[in-house]
Structures are given as C-alpha cells and as structure tokens.
C-alpha cells in the first residue's frame, strides 16, 4: 500500500505542504558537520590531538542524530499520512454537485493571488470539505470541455482530478481547443451528468472569468430548467484593471501578445449575471480577486431544497491515519539523548564481549 498525504485545503488543516520543511534537513546536517569540524580543530589547537575526547564527540553526534530524527518524524506526523485505503459507506443522502471549471489560459492571470485558477480551486476545496454524502463531478473547459471526474462520492479521486485541471493538461484521447466556450461546457454537463430522476437535487457551479467565444450559454437555460438543475455562476478576476495573460512555456515571451501588444483580460461579469438571472434557480456571485467562502455559501443556498438518497453501491474511499506512529517515534528519539553517555559507553563494552 502506498502512503498518501492529504491536501491541506481538503482536510481543513496542514497537509502534504508541510513536508516542504524537510528541505531544511540537509542544511541542518551541513551546519552540524561544519560546526563539529571547527570545534574539533579548536580543541586540537588547544589540547593537541590526544586531548580531544572522542567519546564526547561521538556523544554529540548521537544527540544530533536523535534530535534530527525526532524533527523529521514530527514533520511527517503534521502532514497526516494515511495508508491502506478502505471503502466505507457514506451518508445515505446527498446532492449532485457538478463543478464547471474554466481552465483557459486567461485563468492563469495573477490579478487574483496566486492566480484566478488557483483561487477557483481553493473555493472548490472549501466547498467539498463538508460534502459528505454528496456526489461530486468536475468538468474542465476552455474551447472544449472534458469530464475529468464523473459523479462520485470518492473525495480522494475528486481531489486528484482537481489538481490536474490546468490549461496545459490534456486528458488522454482528447484534443484541447483554445478559447473559452461556456455554453458547450454546460451542454456537456447536462447531457452526460444530469438526469431527470435527480430533479431538484442537482447543482451546477460554474467558475470562470466570464470570457466567452459566442457559445450561446443562454440557450442552455431551458435544459437546466427541465432537469431542475440549480446554477451558481461565480466570476473571478478584476473587472476593472484586469491582468496580463501568462504565455505558454517555450513561447519566447512572458505574456500573451496579439499584434505586438500584450493581451489584458478582465472579469466579464455581465454575461454571467444575465445567465444566472435567466435560470429559475440561478445565482451570480462575484468573487473578483477574493477567495469566496463557498463552503459556507453553498449549504445556505440549498438548505431548503433537501437531499436525495444515493444509489446503492456508492461508497467512499478513506485511508487509515498513521500519524500517531510518527509521534511515538519522535517521542522515543527525544528521550534517547538523555542517555547518550550510556549509549556511547556501551558500544566498546558490547564489542569487547
């Protein structure tokens, strides 16, 4: 079984990102080795080669080794590792939530920090954190739409697919087309993911900067109404000043250019507001350049609509947490330096026996 480290935004606490602290371990080792070399040189200059107490030097190395081991174990424990994933039965009731995520290159604009796309992902993670029992799906779109994750209660799988969503990621067997066509993405979701049987228990959350290349998203309202799908349109990006669009790697320029001039992109919220207003259960939320607390907003929007029993066989994949093991290892390492002299002294005795 492989060890997995959850994403901090999904878990609501620190996650795999804390493992970046392990990068300081080689620096700590280098610092200790250099410090010991200088200390040994100083002792030799004062007392001569025979005056250096080898046992004390070994003792310091043992102490440092245990303290370093304890630090590593605590960092790993903070990352909340899991392994040996098992299937468990989720809550028997939930809603179908389909996220329509714009992954066109304009979503890489940095008027939102760190980018519009990352801000959108953070909002989605915040929303699914409390989605126990709900079925989730993810559709990434630009000039074409791809179903990265079909409806599922497997939060870990959904999380993995959300991480993959990017303008440069092309699913196997598909061709990514440039531009942004919101209407085509909505049509794909209504055809492949929504059903009349789940009427009034289905929601479409569209997150985009609003730019659209004549895909007629308004024409999809009738189908959404027929299936009883609620629409939450979320606009990201600065609607006034906007930002430049980062160019693809290897293009020879930092930002996208057209006719020699840098291309600027702004949030086009008017079309999104009109689209949401035409939908019977439509809502437009303008996030702008701020992180939208979707985990609080979404439950409020649907609390009066209820939840529907999920189909038999829907199960949730969860991992067994093993962070207590690393905490115990850290405690053991922290208690060992109190007896370094006995450990060091025991080595020659054991060899003599």
Write a structural description.
The protein has 353 residues and is an alpha/beta fold. It folds into two domains: 111 residues, no CATH class; 218 residues, 3-Layer(aba) Sandwich (Rossmann fold). Helices cover 39% and strands 20% of the residues. It has a six-stranded mixed beta sheet, with helices on both faces. Helix 2 runs antiparallel to helix 3 and helix 3 crosses helix 11. The longest helix has 25 residues. It is elongated, with a radius of gyration of 28 Å.
What is the gist of this entry?
By secondary structure, the protein is an alpha/beta fold. It has two domains: 8-85 and 320-352, no CATH class; 92-309, Rossmann fold (3-Layer(aba) Sandwich). The chain has helices at 8-11, 25-47, 54-78, 116-128, 155-164, 182-192, 221-226, 269-278, 294-302, 323-335, 340-352; strands at 82-88, 93-94, 96-102, 135-141, 145-152, 202-208, 229-236, 243-244, 257-258, 261-262, 264-265, 282-288, 308-309, 316-321.
Largest sheet: 6 strands, mixed
- CATH homologous superfamily classification of the largest domain: von Willebrand factor, type A domain
> What is the count of helical runs?
11
- Note the overall shape: elongated
What is the count of distinct domains?
2
CATH topology of the largest domain, by name, is Rossmann fold
Provide key terms for this protein.
disordered C terminus; single chain; alpha/beta; two-stranded antiparallel ribbon; 39% helix; 2 domains; 14 strands; 353 residues; elongated; Rossmann fold
